[in-house]
Fold this sequence. Notes:
The model has no long low-confidence stretch (mean pLDDT 94). The chain starts with a helix and ends with a strand. It is of the alpha+beta class. It has helices spanning 3-14, 29-38, 84-88, 113-137, 139-152; strands spanning 26-27, 45-48, 55-58, 91-99, 102-109, 159-167. The structure holds iron/sulfur cluster (SF4) (2 copies). One iron/sulfur cluster (SF4) binds next to helix 1 and helix 4.
Amino acid sequence: MTKKxxxxxxxxxxxxxxxxxxxxxxxxxxxxxxxNKQISDDNWIRKxxxxxxxxxxxxxxxxxxxxxxxxxxxxxxxxxxxxxxxxLFPIFLKIKENKVGSYKIEWLVWYxxxxxxxxxxTLLEEARKIIEDYLEKEPQIVFEYQTAMYESGGYKKKHxxxxxxxxxx
Length: 169
Ligand code: SF4
Ligand code: SF4
């Protein structure tokens, strides 16, 4: 079984995609343009403008808490294009310090079955690779993620895991 199908089995069948029925994913501009290439209407996206910062999240289905993209079989209909927030899940990050090429990152975790079945270390390693890639090529996307997470309440109920410095040469 591939890593992807093993996780789909855990998420869709054993967990019934709980996280896709809770806080809606926060979006970066890159997520929006990537998803818009796959989706032809704009019913999937919601704007939040309660503070001076305008951010976007994925809309919920009408009359339910399910993510707009969750299918009846508990799968994600945009899996390959899913938002950064979903790719990192159940790991989250906050940038605590930002100097030239050096970022102090606070890693957070939301305990879900994957932390047992896959291991926290593996999930953190994967999240770190994703974030290092963005910090190298498009660091502003990581800051957009952070702003959208703050403004949409996406940081609630997360547990501190560790702090580390990522250096980009
Ligand atoms: S990521 Fe975790 S909470 Fe979300 S569906 Fe998978 S096992 Fe459940
Ligand atoms: S975009 Fe996909 S992975 Fe993310 S919450 Fe929605 S259904 Fe789940």
